């Protein structure tokens, strides 16, 4: 298969993934969020508010609000690629949202279920869209435009948009709706990060030790994890120190602590949670 055909098939798959992810978001909005008076953040939230306040179908509102933003993104940001990928996401989400709303199907009115499943499905859908290098338009493009024209950071601009949306939701739909929207946004963000960065939990350990080689050998043998040995210097004492860096699974963290304690009781160790791990971090000892 030629490279050109591979690229074409890859692009088709990415556009299909964008449409699928946007459709999942639209289904969550149409069955759980909109019928129960719950808004989401960004431009989609403004469209939901327009639906409840003015009767404008949410999908139509999304298109009306997103198209000028999308045009500005095409002109001032990433050109045709951003425009076409975002347009696919916007159209898929808008159409599915209005079709689902028109069916009148509302699986539940329980607030807890709405928060959990509405947020989770939106997060999964957005993760699929972002994985395929697409967007559903709205606040992310608007934030990048504001960042281009002002000194405001992208995250700050998106935060301002969301604050405006939630304030309007509280004023028009009640404080309960705004509070539920914030909780659903938290669940959505958690689901988005989990799917986008992988569900496999890992921990990264940085170990300052006087027994670098023996400790590294123990980790290699007992945990089958690769170890990087770096040179360091104590700022106060000026003494040379070795620094080990190792990535393990969450389940292996307790065992790593025990191994470090046994090999060097005076070692200093910090453990953090990386957002993403790319590449293999396991190690296989050579066969004898």
Task: Please outline the helices and strands.
Blueprint (H helix, E strand, L loop, with lengths): L2 H31 L8 H13 L3 H19 L3 H24 L7 H21 L7 H11 L4 H20 L1 H23 L4 E8 L2 H11 L4 E7 L6 E10 L3 H11 L4 E5 L16
Antiparallel strand pairs: 1-3, 1-4, 2-3
Helix pairs in contact: 1-4, 1-5, 2-3, 2-7, 3-4, 3-6, 5-8, 6-7, 7-8, 9-10
Proportion in helices: 55-70%
Number of helices: 10
The total strand number stands at 4
* SSE order: HHHHHHHHEHEEHE
Radius of gyration based on Cα positions: 24 Å
Mean pLDDT: 85
Give a quick rundown of the structure.
By secondary structure, the chain is an alpha+beta fold. The protein is 64% helix and 10% strand.
Could you explain the architecture of this structure?
- By secondary structure, the protein is an alpha+beta fold.
- The chain folds into two domains: 3-197, no CATH class; 202-272, Alpha-Beta Plaits (2-Layer Sandwich).
- It contains ten helices and four strands, in the order ααααααααβαββαβ.
- A hairpin with a 6-residue loop joins strand 2 and strand 3.
- Helix 1 (3-33) runs parallel beside helix 4 (80-103).
- The protein starts with a helix and ends in a 16-residue tail after the last strand.
- The mean pLDDT is 85.
